[in-house]
Design a protein that fits this description.
The chain has one domain (9-115): NE0471 N-terminal domain-like. By secondary structure, the protein is an alpha+beta fold. The strands form 2 sheets. The protein has a 3-stranded antiparallel beta sheet. Strands 4-5-6 form a 3-stranded antiparallel beta sheet. Helices cover 27% and strands 27% of the residues.
């Protein structure tokens, strides 16, 4: 079971073009995360696998947008993406981790794309 979040979300906002999600937490932390980043770091088994070694590197998601946010209980949100992906449950803990770790995670993703000769474009 996932630990309780160190901070609780007080705002989730999708921008006009539907390319970014801004999430603000009650501890003052605020992150704006791109739809592409959220999609390639989806917590779904399809992306993350069941172990770190099974994580999938997915290219071609630069143009993906957020179609809809769907609350899941009081602990997560399901993000529906324009490419049809909607199986990841983004817990508050996971969103906080994505925000705090954005630099390292994004750098690792770009490196993995290059190693696998994949592109961010479709």
């Amino acid at each position: 079971m996932e630990a309780a979040p160190a901070a609780w979300p007080v705002e989730l906002r999708v921008d006009g073009p539907r390319t970014n999600l801004t999430i603000a937490f009650d501890n003052g932390e605020r992150f704006t995360l791109s739809a592409e980043y959220l999609r390639v770091e989806s917590p779904s088994a399809e992306v993350q696998g069941h172990t770190a070694a099974q994580k999938q590197i997915i290219g071609g998601k630069r143009a993906v947008t957020i179609k809809m946010l769907e609350p899941v209980g009081n602990y997560a949100v399901r993000i529906h993406f324009s490419d049809g992906h909607d199986s990841g449950l983004y817990s508050w803990v996971w969103l906080l981790e994505l925000g705090r770790g954005h630099g390292k995670k994004w750098e690792a993703y770009l490196k993995a794309l290059k190693e696998k000769r994949l592109s961010r474009d479709a």
